[in-house]
Amino acid sequence: MADAATFDHIIVGAGTAGCLLANRLSADPARRVLLLEAGGRDDYLWIHIPVGYLYCIGNPRTDWLYQTEPDAGLNGRRLRYPRGKVLGGCSSINGMIYMRGQARDYDGWAAHTGEPAWSWAQCLPDFVAHEDHWRLDAHDDPTLATLHGHRRSGSTGEWRVERQRLRWDILDAFARAAQQAGIPATDDFNRGNNEGVGYFEVNQRAGWRWNAAKAFLHPVRRRPNLTVWTDAQVTRLVFEGGPGAPLRCCGVDVVVRGQRVVVQAAREVTLAAGAIGSPAILQRSGIGPAAWLQPLGIPVVADLPGVGANLQDHLQIRAVYRVRGTTTLNTLANSPWGKLRIGLQYLLTRSGPMSMAPSQLGAFTRSDAQQRWPNLEYHVQPLSLDAFGEPLHRFDAFTASVCNLNPSSRGTVRIRSPRWEDAPAIAPNYLSTEDDRRVAAASLRLTRRIVAQPALAPYQPDEYKPGPQYQTDDELARLAGDIATTIFHPVGTTAMGPDGDPMAVTDPQLRVRDARGGRIAGLRVVDAGIMPTITSGNTNSPTLMIAEKAARWILTQT
């Protein structure tokens, strides 16, 4: 193996977290930063047109093409499990929804870890630090400063948040129906309690997708102390010391365009490869459950049972309703003239269906009156299809997808072999607890209650899926397994926790633990995998917040 240069910091993964980390760390000209991305550049047109996620998910140019293991909770089905394989990572192929979650998510992290920095009050400034919110475009409203920042001398953060550039009559009717069912209207899901119904805000700029590469990486690519390698796959981490001596991560073994090299890190290696990629790299490097690694012939560096455990995800249950008396995307996109209209609208105004996020209308509410906080999220779309990637139905319809925000089911990510070319086994174990099955049945009943409200009556909604013949809790839970799919929010596989927590992979400052209760020097994880519990909403922007906070720790601790 040839030796490459030494850098101060090596960041593995140029996704959501990695792009922000590269920006913040390289702002210090004394630090030499190497950013590694296994995928290619984000110069594919469909990355940047919002509806282009249809052409990026399932495309080997931009997606790892993972699948889950057959899942008993899904009645034996496998699911497609997209993960971004390109500069910007999942922010280049995701739904673009800007969502922080709920204050109680972060207060729970602070209580769990014993680290006050993870409280909502101390996380909010890390969200605001990089936010560029549309509400500040017209004027600098001081009442928004705490929630969304303010403009200082004309400058703002890098992460653009805008209103969507479309509306649909059927979605407006669903919003009114939700209000009639007791869900209040809201114009901001990001105040700390996201209860309500309204249109999602999105990470776009003037009708184009705004990914992490555009926001944080491309503006600083010419910094002389920042090096970016694409098509660079990390095979394993390199260590020095141990046994009996302190263990330190001193670099990475990486295949760059077919050439294998070892790159040294003088200060720190930071894994930002995501909740699937980071535990796989740790396991290939000998950090993980010994019972998993030893049968594969991998020498155990640190027996950490939490690496690859604690996988959590949001499972959405997709209820479809046929409607009459209105046009939805189904008939519009199935017509040659409709397609022409859609294309011209985007070409001329950067608006309309081609500017659509995958979900436009959202709602947060409770599955039953005993819930202390909203535990359900709706993604509502003016379209329907049998499964993602398949043709739209040839009748007008809308889809009301609902997910349990706080699932109790836990899964695993586990490598199959020491070879980096072999995809890991991803087993989310959806609907594996009685509580998750109960919430699934309750959420379908709530969807029916919303659709039965007067606001939707003019459209004569008819339940196409799962079908009104299914009524009992057991039937609805089983049907949820038939029709549910992931919203692509995997977290938790390298979870942080306090000293003494046997399943904690990282400490509250995201430094990787060793098997003796100490730390592996020079190694940190900064991505959604560190979440001990999943946030109550979409996970992309919380990952940026994590990276913002971690960047400060790295700069002060190394």
Structure description:
The chain has 558 residues and is α+β, with helices and mostly antiparallel strands. The protein is built from 15 helices and 26 strands. Helix 5 (120-128) crosses helix 15 (540-557) and helix 13 packs across helix 14. The two termini are 28 Å apart.
Q: How many distinct helices?
A: 15
Gyration radius, in Å: 23 Å
Helix content: 25-40%
Task: Please tell me the overall pLDDT.
Answer: 94
> Shape from CA axes?
globular
Beta-strand segment tally: 26
CATH class categorisation of the largest domain: Alpha Beta
Q: Which stretches are low in confidence, meaning pLDDT under 50 for 5 or more residues running? A: none
Report the CATH superfamily of the largest domain: FAD/NAD(P)-binding domain
Structural class, please?
Answer: alpha+beta
Oligomeric state: single chain
Could you give a short account of the major beta sheet?
8 strands, mixed
Number of domains: 2
Strand content: 15-25%
Q: What is the architecture of the largest domain at the second tier of CATH?
A: 3-Layer(bba) Sandwich
